[in-house]
Structures are given as structure tokens and as C-alpha cells.
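User: Structure please.
Assistant: Input sequence and predicted structure:
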Amino acid sequence: MVGQLSRRNQISVMSDILRIGLIGAGQNTRTMHIPGFQAIDGVEVVVVANRSRESSQRVADKFGIPRIADSWQMVVADPEVDAICIGTWPYLHAEITCAALSKGKHVLTEARMARNLTEAEEMLAASRKYSDLVAQVVPSPMTLPLDQTIREKITSGHLGDIREICVTHTTSGNADASTPMTWRQDFELSGYNTMALGIFYEAVLRWMQADVKVECANAAIHTPQRLRSDGSMGEVKIPESLTVLGRYEQGARLIMHLSGVERGPSREEIRIHGSERSLRISIFTAEMWETDASGVETPVVIDEALKQAWRVEADFVDSIREDAPVRLTDFETGVRTMRFTDDVWHAWSGK
């Protein structure tokens, strides 16, 4: 920003401390975000607001956070907070993000970005309105050690012309009809987000750097009602099994199969088939194998220099302090992922 000092740099100039407010303190916030922020010099987590005062206090006590707040609105309005980390379920992401940006707070929001494309676009519009503030989505983490290697193999032509990308993700999470409904199955909380659809698509988007046209999708809800946490029965609207077919402009096909009803061991594998070579990617073990015309599969040795580690909190802080662009994941990329998620929803539901 020419001719003026951005609010990103004002923080580092005016104070040695970057003060983080937490809204929502679920597992990922407790496991990754709080320790990540607290490990950075000059960063303090100063307040937390969880779903109840009691749960907020438990988190504050465990991590040495000095204050709790009774509502997310109090954290957003707090003059002692420079940046907000949103760890709620998707239903609040857009509302909190837009409010926080309007109050001059930087925003790191948990994935999934929002419940649907409309909310995601509202978030993107707010980030552009307050463009001197950092707006970042927590990135899809599963393929971080492999992303640069996969991208290089695609862009260099090593695999040849890409013909197919096949994503398989199965678990037993929805197989038992007596299992209570989780937030991931609650339409009011999650919207169009379906299992791990957007998380895996974001990874593929990093490699291909191109959007997919959804050609068709088929889904099933095997248990139409599940027990809610409050003891009532709730309607399940989000699929428990989903298959998507899409096509890139250059002709490659994207095939995604996600299922929560596999009784056996979970499977997480992505295969990329090119005209010269194929890659088989194990998400669980962060390993890859390559096959050429000989049909012999060989391990891919991944250069340690190309492996990306989890540094979400550090990247967020660097963007605030150094005016560095957000790489993983900016709101524009988040909207592209939500557009795909919406397109899949409309394709299978017909709505």
C-alpha cells in the first residue's frame, strides 16, 4: 500500500505484541492453533469465547489464557484484540468474519470456509473492502508434505497429459445407524459441506491450479434420522456416501468417491493418471509411488526441501507483520472450493 502504513504493519510498529482472540475452541484450535500461536515470539492469546462460560474457562485454565468472554461479539469488539482466530463450526464463519474485519481485526478462520458459496462470497467481499487486513482460511493439511512434489510432476510434464484424478476417502463414521448426529451431518451447522469433499478438492486445486466443471454427482443418506446431542431426533440432510464426476477444461476427469459407511479400514488414496506415468498417493502415510509404461510401481523419493510442514499460525502472523501475501489459504481460493462444493450439492440434489 503506497503512501500510507497498512494496519498490518501498524501492529508491529505500535506494539511488540500481537494479541489473538479465540472464538470457538474445538479440537483443532486446542491441538494446533493455541500451541502454534503461543510458540511465536511476541504473540499472545489474550481471550477465548467458547460455547459456554464453563468450557471457555477450562480452555483458559489449560493454556494460561488470561481472559474469557461470554460471547463472540465481545471478542470482536475487544480493543485489546488485534486478530481473531475462528474455531467454530461453519455456520458462524461468515458472520464473525465480516464483523471482525469491520472492527479492524485480522481473521484466521477454520475450514470449512462457510456453509455455502453465498456466505463465502460475503466473506470475500468483506476482505476486499478491508484489504489492509489479513483474511486467511486454515488450509487443507493432509497433503502438505507432498504438494510441491506433485505440482512439479504435473507442471513439468513428467506425468504427460493428465487424464484422470481419482480421489478415494472412506470411513466407518456413518455406518452405525445408532451413532449420534455430529456437526458435520447437521445442515444448519455445516450447510452444503459434505464429509471431506472440500478438504480434498482444495488439495487437488493446489496441484492443478484449475477449476473443475461438475458433470454429475450421486449421493445417498442411509440413516435419514439420527439422535442429536440434546436427545431429540434430527433429520439428516447431508449425504453419507457421495460420488462426483467432473472434467477440467483441458479434458482431464476428476472422480471423487467419499463414504462414511465402509465397515472395514478407512481408505485415503489419490491416483493421478497421465499419458506417460501414474502417481499413487497415500494420504495416511504421506507416501507416493510412480508407475511408467513398464507397469512397475516404484517409490517416489521426496526432497526434504520441498516438504511443507504445518505453519498456519506462523504464516498468519507473518502476513500481518510483514505484509506477506497469504499462500495457504486465501479467501479467493476458499471461494473456489466452496463453489465446487455448491455445484456438487446442486448436482446430486437437483436443487
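The first strand starts at residue 18 and ends at 23.
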